[in-house]
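Loading example: each entry is read as two labelled lines plus one structure line.
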Amino acid sequence: MTERLRVHVDPDKCQGHARCKALAPELFELDEYGNAHESGDGIVPSGLEDKAWLAKSNCPEIAIEVIEE
Amino acid sequence: MSDVSQPAAHPPVTDWVHDFDHTDPQWTEDPFPIWDELRAASPVVHTERFLGCYMPTTYEAVREIANDTEHFSSRRIIVRDVRPEVARNAAPPITSDPPVHKPAKQLLLPPFTPDAMKKLEPRMRAICNELIDGFVANGEVDAAARYAKYIPVRAIAHMLGIPESDSDLFIRWIHMILELGIKDESRLLQAVQEMSAYFRTHIEERRSKPTGDLISYLMNARDKEGQPLEESHVLGSLRLLLIAGIDTTWSAIGSALWHLARTPADRERLVAEPGLMPTAVEELLRAYSPVTMAREVVKETTISGCPVKAGNMVLLSFPAANRDPNVFPDADKVVIDRRENRHAAFGLGIHRCVGSNLARMEMQVALEEWLKRIPDFRIDPAGTVTWSQGTVRGPRQLPFLFGKAM
């Protein structure tokens, strides 16, 4: 059985590059300034794991954490 | 206005590691081997030119400096021969340091979110097609001068609410500030004065007749105390939006087309797999990042183990960082389906480009519309490709052949 993943954006590191929103729109939201946060509780629905890792590995500010639970 | 000052000629560079110069013709023509040489020598190199200037050569050193606003100030953001007095409200927020930076930046962010850009997209597609209509029957075109150049200038004019037909005027100011201004202060000052006068007229018009554009948006903006912005702040931000939005994206679109003209396999793949375009745009931004910024060292510190002394400038080369092989495998290759791409083309840290979502949209639309109408094209072997010098790098002459002429 695979582990469940959760994504989290560190709001102090995020500078609003919006790469996560472009790559994984199901997992991230942008605020009125374009800064990102995870959708809801950040739990990655099954099938979207690849997108979670992709968002993390494309964030220029290294602001995204993918937690294996 | 008489032009009394003569720009100083720079002696040619013979020792890049100890005497680099980003205005040298060799750098303008092909900077990539130079960056590799500098990176192999040290994570931070220094030149006595420009009254003393460092350059971080690795991605990590660039990141450290971009994130360190205590030792590195943004009050000067272009490495030049002179260091005139710093003007207050020069171009906030790009020239601002904390704590002034954040409110000035937050003010500009809402009009540039990805959602806001989606609304602008149909106008951008129309602009691209109008431009292509102007030359598609000829079988040849200077794609820098007649296509890439006019896309961002018309986009930002549209957003600011100023006539798209004034585009050539804006392009002239930008050339004076970003290229001629490195060595000739008088040209820079002249352009700044002309721009301010231009925007003052537009501000005046909106006092009696408010509009829904960015000029009105800034005029109506209020700070935390509910006070309107000072006029110098409004003018500084308007100058910034006009300057920063134009030759940067012009360069990015031009470099992308230059690459595609020389790489039939990538061109064919993008035509066959249009869904790959957003990934390809990121890779082209990485490989041909147009914008090099600067900082001024205000307090002595150490970067990647190298001592850095106050009073020097820093050439903050995001383009060189994006070619660091320790961060990007095959850094010197354009891999249009590169999956992991933390490129720093729009900067890192608090000064991340406000217009990054606009630039990305423009680039994607410009390449998509071009490929729909001109899927096959190549560089005219009888012509010459030329590149801009200094802070923003991109093709300024890009002679292409297509259709029958190929």
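Confidence is low (pLDDT under 50) at residues 1-5 of chain B.
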